[in-house]
Amino acid sequence: MPPLVIIDVRLSAGIAVGGQTGHVVGRVAPFTLGINADILLADHPWTSFYIGPYIEGVDRIALGAYGGVRVRPLRGGMRLQAGFNALLVPYTLGGVSAGGGYCYAVGKKSAVRLCADLEGVLFFLGSDLPANRVAGQLNLLLGASFNAL
Amino acid sequence: MRSEKPKSSRWGWVLLALSVALTALTGCDPGCTRNSDCRSGLVCGEVSSCVIAPDLADTDGGPTGDLADGGTADDLSQAPDLSDVIDLPDLSVLPDEGEAP
């Protein structure tokens, strides 16, 4: 049976894309550091709900939360996820995210795993967005995953 | 005996290649995508460059709404009389300009 609760720590970096028709801009996306609890919802297929806080920096500081649903269709290291990203302080920014990746077991008991994911985020609301615009991010997430329960 | 690489190692190489590609892409047009990409007091404008925030573009105290006009005599004429509020020093006792201390 999969673990009931997993704790994930993740660090992300990537590119941000925005602009208008005919003028697309790309730049380095802010780094983020987050921690989340991953709570088992169903055993077949292995489905879980994850949620937790994160901060973004380095050229700015903001605090937010992310969460969503994660599925491991092969019951192995591969995982797919979809959810939301929301920055709350000092500015607001909200959007949806989707992605997937792989976790490598460390040691024989597999209680600790090193994970790498690719994630796409589409931000479409909040005070941090220019008027009538959306912004996207493509992030590479690296982190570790621990069995808590 | 030949040992086969596990499939998981292929994922690692794919992710590594993608991260390199992402790093290379970040060298492109460094415009803004969000207001927080700009310095304080600026926001991300229509052509993805940082511009003065609309609420700060009218802080010259004048009625024209133009920050670059530097203020006009008409603006000053609307200022209240502060002579009763501020105790100004008597400048007549200061030494003349150029006089040795």
What does this structure look like?
The complex is a heterodimer of chains A (149) and B (101). By secondary structure, chain A is mainly beta. Chain A is built from no helices and nine strands. Chain A has one domain: Porin, CATH 2.40.160. Chain A has an eight-stranded antiparallel barrel. In chain A, a hairpin with a 2-residue loop joins strand 1 and strand 2. Chain B is mainly alpha-helical and 101 residues long. Chain B has a domain of 31 residues. Helices cover 24% and strands 6% of the residues of chain B. Chain B contains two helices and two strands. Chain B has a two-stranded antiparallel sheet.
Descriptive tags:
A: 149 residues; mainly beta; Porin; B: 6% strand; elongated
Q: What's the short version?
A:
Chain A is mainly beta.
Percent helix of chain A: under 10%
Class by helix and strand content of chain B?
A: mainly alpha
Unreliable parts of chain B: none
How far apart are the first and last residues' alpha carbons of chain B, in Å?
97 Å
Q: Give a short account of the largest sheet of chain B.
A: 2 strands, antiparallel
Oligomer: heterodimer
User: DSSP strand (E) fraction of chain B?
Assistant: 5-15%
Sequence-ordered SSE layout with sheet pairings:
The complex is a heterodimer of chains A (149) and B (101).
Chain A: E1 5-20, E2 23-28, E3 31-42, E4 46-57, E5 62-72, E6 78-89, E7 93-106, E8 112-125, E9 135-147
Antiparallel strand pairs in A: 1-2, 1-3, 1-9, 3-4, 4-5, 5-6, 6-7, 7-8, 8-9
Chain B: H1 7-25, E1 42-44, E2 50-52, H2 73-77
Antiparallel strand pairs in B: 1-2
